[in-house]
Amino acid sequence: MSPTIKDVAKAANVSIATVSLVLHDNERISPETKRRVLKSIKELNYYPFRSAQGLVSRKTGNIGFIITEEHFLRTEPFYTRVFLGAEFEARENDYYVLLATIKSSFKKSDPLPRFILERNFDGIVITGKVPEAFIKSLLKYKMPIVFIDYVPPFGDFPSVLIDNLRGGVLATEHLINNGYKDIAFIGGEISHPSIMERLQGYKLALERANNNSNGLIVTNDEYLTRQNGYKLAKELFDRRKDITAIFAANNPTAMGVMKYLTDNGKKIPDDVSIMSFDDVEAAMLINPPLTTIRVPKVEMGIEAVQLLMKIQKYNGKNNIAKKIIVPVELVIRESIKNIN
Amino acid sequence: MSPTIKDVAKAANVSIATVSLVLHDNERISPETKRRVLKSIKELNYYPFRSAQGLVSRKTGNIGFIITEEHFLRTEPFYTRVFLGAEFEARENDYYVLLATIKSSFKKSDPLPRFILERNFDGIVITGKVPEAFIKSLLKYKMPIVFIDYVPPFGDFPSVLIDNLRGGVLATEHLINNGYKDIAFIGGEISHPSIMERLQGYKLALERANNNSNGLIVTNDEYLTRQNGYKLAKELFDRRKDITAIFAANNPTAMGVMKYLTDNGKKIPDDVSIMSFDDVEAAMLINPPLTTIRVPKVEMGIEAVQLLMKIQKYNGKNNIAKKIIVPVELVIRESIKNIN
DNA sequence: TTATTTCAGTTAAACGTTTAACTGAAAATA
DNA sequence: TATTTTCAGTTAAACGTTTAACTGAAATAA
Q1: Average of pLDDT values for A49-76?
Q2: B304 strand D contact, CB < 7 Å
Q3: Engineered SS bond to A276: which of A221, A290, B164, B318, CB 3.0-4.6 Å?
Q4: pLDDT at position B225, please?
Q5: Taking CB atoms and an 8 Å limit, are A114 and B94 in contact across chains?
Q6: What residue ranges define each of the domains in chain A, with the CATH number in brackets?
Q7: Could you write out the DSSP letters of every residue in B255-311?
Q8: Is the pLDDT of residue B146 over 90?
């Protein structure tokens, strides 16, 4: 049996209230008593029992981490790294993280993850695009929510977002700087704000460079998979055979494009240069390694939990829907040939 | 404020004890009363408060899921899928899963994950190879443990393991059936039981086929990474330039081998055939897609949690260290050429 | 000096649930 | 009929912690 607060109190010859106060760093306790209590705590290897704490304090000590099953199982460990960051920061704040996946086909009538139904969480982090029906169900619980890499089309929520616009600009400028003029943009899921912003960045950079590379945007609204990248590349080259530079909206898309190119006898980067977005390991390991815009994944998880902690602290008041934009960075590898 | 058991009792006009008994399906309650109570529960959308339950029942409702940080962040979502299976099965049993990563450099003096220190779990699943020092620290807590894809070199623990031996046999036989005689085995981390067993399977299949392909086993004890695969492939071809069939001990290794081959002008599978192990998505997406031994990852997670539940149930008595061996399966793709 | 304030704790109620022990009515048994 | 057993619940204690309200001694103020 684990020691309880009573055992500590007895050992330190104080009341259990004193032990509790020491545990919460209350200034009412003298240094000497505090020392004695802490000594007993250590000697007995005492840790407060969460359930008992939760019962009285009405805090659970849990934060939820929600992600669609599809995202969680993606080949690229993108959101996995985000989770790791969240878990790290939660631990720093004495919280546990409960991870739950939901289907991207979530309907209003579907049951919410158990820890939500049971109200066994103090706040929640939602990562990636999730169904609106899910968010609406969740809102009834009136719990703090932080979104990562996605903002729902309604309401105004605290969120941690990627600087997609700047990423799009950086990516496009790099291609321009390497001597390209006709630059194609390839991307699925165009209704996703992140992809839309990358496209905006692409357009902005072209404008700034007075580059008039029209009609080379090939998109649809299907998932950003390798298969879709392949399909979109085919579409692109069916329309324009002369393209030599492509900005692919994310990593799997870039890989699909590459597969299409090699299948059709084109060499990368000798015949076609490719710029990608996200920077997951696969980008580095493929041949040739992809030049890409890197997104700080672990940091996003950390930021999200920190934001959640702040929202909890100022609960109610000072309740600004704060948005944090994390920076991106250009990582140069071998998928782009300088033709200057 | 969420409704409590009191609210339900009042609504159904019974005592709180009756509500509790209904919740636990006690046969002491008449069907009529039970119906009434369940109706109130539903109407009020009542869920028992975990902390209160935990306080009296001394169960936390959590199970821990431990994995090294290195494994969790691997490019291949191998253990991620295992986790998903565990989470799914835990939910079925009304448990939460607390995921915690530890460093593979864990030392005796390092702190354990918080939920362990706080005893906030009813059992634990350990996935992949973890440091012995960690296991030894954990044992002091005398909690049920189930290992996945690893058994520590000491003690006898319940575990869910891959049928590596059969996998090794299947893989090697497939190469033999495709006309190969001189078959190389490449693998790192040779002290890991799983890899050792795959090697044993390889040897066994060769023996059975009266194939005498000696001196073609190239191993070391470094991690099973792409880099190491590359290195080992170099070592192999430095010694024997004529090898045309390779069995790589896992997926990254196979990819490293492939990279070495293409870097050295060899075509796959025309010049060299490659067999792999694990079957993660990457195996399918690489060019050419890898023929491989598939491991049922999600099922391993499910089995592990089921085993943990059983151990808890028969707590103490009937305490057999049960081992579950999950089957593997051959998945034929395009990395092996039939030369018969 | 006495009265007031500060200090350093202690006391006791409360949180929501489970469950052993109890109860009173109805049914079964003698 | 009187007694015992079964049924269908109820009562009340317990779990480990937090915290508002209290206390008694020492320090300060009047």
Answers
A1: 89
A2: no
A3: A290
A4: 87
A5: yes
A6: 5-48 (1.10.260.40), 62-162+298-326 (3.40.50.2300), 164-295 (3.40.50.2300)
A7: HHHHHHHHHTT--TTTT-EEEEEE--HHHHHSSSPPEEEE--HHHHHHHHHHHHHHH
A8: yes
